[in-house]
Amino acid sequence: MRRPLDLRHVISPGLRDLVELANTDNFDRVTEQVRDLRGCTSPVNLHGWTITTDQTTNQVVRSYRSEDEPSGRLLTTCGNRRASRCPACSRLYAADTYHLIKAGLSGGKNVAETVRDHPRAFVTLTAPSFGPVHNRPTTDAGKPRPCSCGETHAQDAPELGTPLRPAHYDYSGAVLWNAHAGALWARFTTYLRRALAEHLGMTQKALNAALRISFAKVAEYQQRGLVHFHAVVRFDGPDGHTTAPPAWATFDALQVAVGLAIERARLIVESDAVGERVIRWGDRFKVDQISALGDGELTDAKVAGYVAKYATKNAEGAGTVDRTLVCRPCAGRGYVRGPDGFRDLCEDCDGTGQAEPLTNLAVQQHARQMIRTAWALGHLPEFAHLKLWKWAHMLGFRGHFSSKSRAYSTTLGALRDVRRAWRTAQAEAARVRASLPVDDENTTLVTASSWTYLSSGYRPGEELLAAQVRHDRVHTERLKQEGLLPA
Ligand SMILES: [Zn+2]
Ligand SMILES: [Zn+2]
Ligand SMILES: [Zn+2]
């Protein structure tokens, strides 16, 4: 029997808790649980059980109860995509995105390897101008030239992308553009098919019967607070990635069609308050061929790397906040209904509907004005469907950072399944070692489980262990980069 340590002189709560954990009957399991989280910032704490029984014998084949853990709960990773929230989980997300995009370009993960011979383009679509902004033009030789304000801005100057004359900048236009960017993308994909048929002198029907176009796109914020899209566009044969596209479906045809579709894709927004707005793409776009042999500038790996990097950024590039600004109790309305059915001023936000006053946000004036504009437009009934309060912190853009057409490649879910299957296989192997009954084809196994959410985060002692895990991971990564460990 171990005698508990005298903890009175241990001052740090983290250390005190760590000593407490060390005194549980299985400290190895405590450290193992934290290590499995791979440095996750805010793991999910669960309580519950899973039991698998053999129906023919009624025997319990395996069981797991969080009660049996030394700390009485199961910890799982938060799985957040955003690097600002959880660097560890976002790295995993980036890795998954990388493999997903890469598979769509080079094959693998159930995608035919012949896709690398299909015409493939990396397309960048941008927003139009809503007024002149501070920029950093360069000469053909790459030397910086002065901005129209007269100054030559440094590469990381905070004023880059912000309006030269804020009072004349079209903030409503900018916010509405962000809010419709997803819809404009959808229209672009429709027009791309039409433009291609027209360019090739075919009917839409004949084109659709012979060719499939698949997409994978990711959104990125520019410094001026507008999103733009990077997309992989690939031509496939009639049955998707396993079939070769017809010979007339060339990269050149794709390039022409993209240009036409960008020009033609438009949305009209009408409102008494802001007038009629045409939502269209900016004149600046790029269509680059992705090289099949890795000898060109844009290789499969490079494109997959770009997309993975963009996928874990949120609106950070635009210098805004990564949390919703809607006051929860009143859902942004500024009032709550009293027991008498009348409106009462919301006490949480003092009637503003905002979780925190916009003037207090630690953001630049330009981002703040985008947020304010989104909030103001959110009051208009004609824009209710855009949920501008909910997306004000995203400067109007309503999510869907990365998306792809079903035919493009494998899914993130499938990649997770692979990982889960691997873990199960490991557990299976451990069970064999412990000489427990092994599943065979003649048994009918039934799994029942019940899980409830407890909280998020670590215990103070576990936090110290997690810090060590993160430190070790950074260290290992550095050794790999220096070539001292195999990559
Ligand atoms: Zn996490
Ligand atoms: Zn300037
Ligand atoms: Zn409120």
Question: How would you describe this structure in keywords?
Answer:
binds zinc ion, 487 residues, 33% helix, five-stranded antiparallel β-sheet, 13 strands, four-stranded antiparallel β-sheet
What can you tell me about this protein's structure?
The structure is a single chain. The chain is α+β, with helices and mostly antiparallel strands. The chain has 3 domains: 13-80 and 413-481, no CATH class; 87-130 and 170-321 and 394-410, no CATH class; 326-360, no CATH class. 33% of the residues lie in helices and 17% in strands. It has helices spanning 13-22, 27-36, 87-106, 171-200, 204-210, 251-264, 300-311, 365-377, 412-433, 460-481, and strands at 44-54, 59-65, 74-76, 120-125, 212-221, 227-236, 266-271, 275-280, 285-289, 335-337, 343-345, 402-404, 445-456. A 5-stranded antiparallel sheet has the order 9-4-6-5-12, with helices on both faces. Strands 1, 2, 3 and 13 form a 4-stranded antiparallel sheet that branches. The longest helix is centred in the middle third of the chain and has 30 residues, at 171-200. The chain is globular. The structure holds zinc ion (3 copies). One zinc ion binds at residues 134, 147, 149, 151, 153.
Bound molecules: zinc ion
* Helix and strand element order: HHEEEHEHHEEHEEEHEEHEHEH
How many helices? The count is 10
- End-to-end Cα distance, whole Å, is 45 Å
Q: Low-confidence runs (pLDDT<50, min 5 residues)?
A: 431-438
Number of domains: 3
Q: Can you summarize the main beta sheet? A: 5 strands, antiparallel
Oligomer: single chain
Radius of gyration using CA atoms only: 27 Å
Average the pLDDT over all residues and give the rounded result: 84
Indicate the proportion of strand residues: 15-25%
How many extended strands? Answer: 13
Biggest sheet, spatial arrangement of strands: 9-4-6-5-12
Estimated helix fraction: 25-40%
